[in-house]
C-alpha cells in the first residue's frame, strides 16, 4: 500500500527542479508525526556534555538523565567526569512540594565528592512547570563552593532542539571572559561545534598546529572549563555544525570583537577549504601560513587519493539518502559522495534554516528530495520509492534502513571511527563501501521482487 505524506507537512518537502524552491522550516514538529527531532533539553545536553572536567546535573525525572547518558560518546584526553550522568531524580513528592532543596543538596554533595571546575544544571520540562528557581539555587551554591554553577534553561516544552543549542551557548558564554589570556598567540583560534566523537578534534588540531596556528579552546569536544574561560583571547572562531554553536560565536563577536568563519572538516574540498580560510584570515600577520596550509593538504592528499580510487570502482552509480541533525553537514556529505561516484537522491535535516535549504537545493541534482524535520513514515516512503542503496543518518534512522534492507552509515552520535579530516574521508569511504556492497542486500525481499520484475521485463522484450 502506498504510504502517504501528512498533508500538514507537504510544504516541508521539495523536489529540486520541480517549480520554484519553497520549503517551510524552523517550526515546531507536527503533533503525532513522531518527528526524528529531539527536545530543547537534549539539544543543550549534546552541546555541553563533552566538557570533560565539568559536573553535569540533570534536574528532573531520572528518565531525562538516562535518555541523554553519554549521548555524544565524546572522547577526552584527560578527565571523564562528563561521562557520569547525574540526576536529582524528581519524584511525585518533589513535584508537589518543589525540588529546590533536593537540587541544592545534590549539588553540594557532588561538588564535594568530584571537585569539578564548574557545574551545569539542566532544567527539564517538569522543573519549568513546577517553577523551581534553578538560577537562585545555582547562585547560592556557587557562593558556597567557589566554582561557577551555571543554570541551563532547557525546559523541553520551550521549543525544539535548536532552542537547546541556544540555551547551551548562553550557559557557556557566562564562562568566557574570566580567564587569563596573556600568553595566547596572535595566530590563534577556538574550534567551535566539533564534539570529538572519535578523536576527530585531535586530527583537526594537528592540521592547524602544522600550519602554525594555536588552538585556545575546544568547544566542546574534549573541552575544558579553564580553556572556555580564556576563549575570548583567541583571534578567530572557527565554527563547524553552525546550528549548535553559531549563537556563541555571534555573542563573542558582539562582546569581544572576535570574528568567526564557518567551516566543515568532512570530505576533501571542505577540509582543504577550511584550512585555507583560516590561512587567508591570518596571512597579513603570518605571510608563510598559506604555503604551510597548502603543504598540509598536499601531504594528506598524496596518501588519500590513490586509495579512494579503489573504492569508487565499486560504488559508482549507487544511490544515497542523507538525514542528519544540521544541514551544514549535509553539504559536505554530498560533495564527499560525488568523490565516490555516488548520487544523493534524498537529503534532509532536523534543524536546517531557509538559507541552508536554499544552498542545498543549489548543489543537489535535479529530482533530489529535500526534507525538513522528517519522520519515519516519510523517510521509509522515499527510501523505497527512490530505491536507495545506502542511508546515512544517526541512531534513530538506523532501524529504518535495516528494516527496509538498506546499507547504513552512522554519521552522528554512535560512531567510533573518525570521519573528519583527510584520514576521515578514507575511513568514510571504507565504511560506505562495506555497507553498500554487502552481498546480504541481494536477499532482501524487496530487492528480490525488483530483480524478478526486471528479469520478467527482459524476457517479455
UniProtKB/TrEMBL annotation:
Q: In which pathway does it act?
A: Cofactor biosynthesis; Fe-Mo cofactor biosynthesis
| Keywords of this entry | Nitrogen fixation
BP GO annotations:
protein-containing complex assembly
| GO MF term set | nitrogenase activity
Q: Which residue windows are coiled coil?
A: none
Name the source's superkingdom: Bacteria
Domain Nitrogenase/oxidoreductase component positions: 39-434
- Could you tell me which PROSITE patterns the record lists for this protein? NITROGENASE_1_1, NITROGENASE_1_2
The UniProt entry, under InterPro entries, shows: Nase/OxRdtase_comp1 (IPR000510), Nase_comp1_CS (IPR000318), NifE (IPR005973), NifE-like (IPR049939)
NCBIfam families documented for this protein = nifE
What family is reported? Answer: Belongs to the NifD/NifK/NifE/NifN family.
Q: What does this protein do?
A: This protein may play a role in the biosynthesis of the prosthetic group of nitrogenase (FeMo cofactor).
Protein name as catalogued = Nitrogenase iron-molybdenum cofactor biosynthesis protein NifE
Q: Which organism is it from?
A: Solidesulfovibrio magneticus (strain ATCC 700980 / DSM 13731 / RS-1)
Task: Provide the taxonomic classification.
Answer: Bacteria, Pseudomonadati, Thermodesulfobacteriota, Desulfovibrionia, Desulfovibrionales
Gene name, per UniProt, is: nifE
Amino acid at each position: 500500500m502506498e504510504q502517504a505524506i501528512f498533508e500538514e507537512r507537504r510544504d516541508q518537502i521539495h523536489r529540486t527542479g520541480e517549480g520554484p524552491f519553497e520549503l517551510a522550516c524552523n517550526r515546531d514538529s507536527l503533533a503525532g508525526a513522531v518527528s526524528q527531532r529531539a527536545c530543547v533539553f537534549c539539544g543543550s545536553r549534546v552541546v555541553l556534555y563533552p566538557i570533560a572536567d565539568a559536573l553535569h546535573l540533570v534536574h528532573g525525572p531520572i528518565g531525562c538523565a538516562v535518555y541523554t547518558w553519554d549521548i555524544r560518546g565524546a572522547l577526552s584526553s584527560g578527565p571523564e567526569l562528563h561521562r557520569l550522568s547525574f540526576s536529582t531524580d524528581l519524584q511525585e513528592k518533589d513535584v508537589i512540594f518543589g525540588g529546590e532543596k533536593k537540587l541544592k543538596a545534590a549539588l553540594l554533595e557532588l561538588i564535594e565528592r568530584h571537585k569539578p571546575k564548574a557545574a551545569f544544571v539542566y532544567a527539564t520540562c517538569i522543573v519549568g512547570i513546577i517553577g523551581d528557581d534553578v538560577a537562585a539555587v545555582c547562585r547560592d551554591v556557587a557562593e558556597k563552593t567557589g566554582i561557577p554553577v551555571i543554570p541551563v534553561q532547557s525546559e523541553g516544552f520551550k521549543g525544539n532542539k535548536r532552542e537547546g543549542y541556544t540555551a547551551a551557548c548562553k550557559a557557556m558564554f557566562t564562562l568566557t571572559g574570566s580567564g587569563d589570556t596573556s600568553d595566547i598567540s596572535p595566530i590563534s583560534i577556538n574550534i567551535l561545534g566539533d564534539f570529538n566523537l572519535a578523536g576527530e578534534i585531535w586530527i583537526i588540531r594537528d592540521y592547524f598546529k602544522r600550519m602554525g596556528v594555536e588552538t585556545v579552546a575546544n568547544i566542546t569536544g574534549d573541552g575544558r572549563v579553564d580553556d572556555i574561560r580564556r576563549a575570548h583571547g583567541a583571534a578567530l572562531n572557527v565554527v563547524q555544525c553552525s546550528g549548535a554553536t553559531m549563537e556563541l560565536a555571534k555573542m563573542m563577536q558582539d562582546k569581544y570583537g572576535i570574528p568567526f568563519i564557518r567551516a566543515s572538516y568532512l570530505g576533501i574540498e571542505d577540509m582543504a577549504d577550511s584550512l585555507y580560510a583560516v590561512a587567508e584570515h591570518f596571512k597579513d600577520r603570518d605571510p608563510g601560513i598559506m604555503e604551510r596550509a597548502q603543504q598540509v593538504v598536499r601531504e594528506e592528499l598524496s596518501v588519500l587519493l590513490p586509495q579512494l580510487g579503489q573504492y569508487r570502482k565499486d560504488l559508482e552509480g549507487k544511490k544515497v539518502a542523507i538525514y542528519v541533525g544540521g544541514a551544514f553537514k549535509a553539504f559536505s556529505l554530498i560533495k564527499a559522495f560525488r568523490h565516490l561516484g555516488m548520487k544523493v537522491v534524498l537529503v534532509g535535516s532536523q534543524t536546517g534554516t531557509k538559507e541552508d535549504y536554499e544552498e542545498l537545493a543549489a548543489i543537489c541534482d535535479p529530482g533530489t528530495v529535500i526534507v525538513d524535520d522528517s519522520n519515519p513514515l516519510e523517510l521509509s516512503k522515499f527510501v523505497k520509492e527512490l530505491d536507495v542503496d545506502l542511508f546515512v543518518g544517526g541512531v534513530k534512522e538506523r532501524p529504518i534502513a535495516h528494516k527496509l534492507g538498506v546499507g547504513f552509515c552512522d554519521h552522528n552520535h554512535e560512531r567510533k571511527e573518525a570521519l573528519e579530516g583527510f584520514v576521515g574521508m578514507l575511513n568514510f569511504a571504507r565504511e560506505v563501501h562495506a555497507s553498500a556492497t554487502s552481498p546480504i542486500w541481494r536477499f532482501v525481499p524487496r530487492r528480490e521482487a525488483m530483480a524478478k520484475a526486471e528479469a520478467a521485463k527482459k524476457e517479455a522484450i
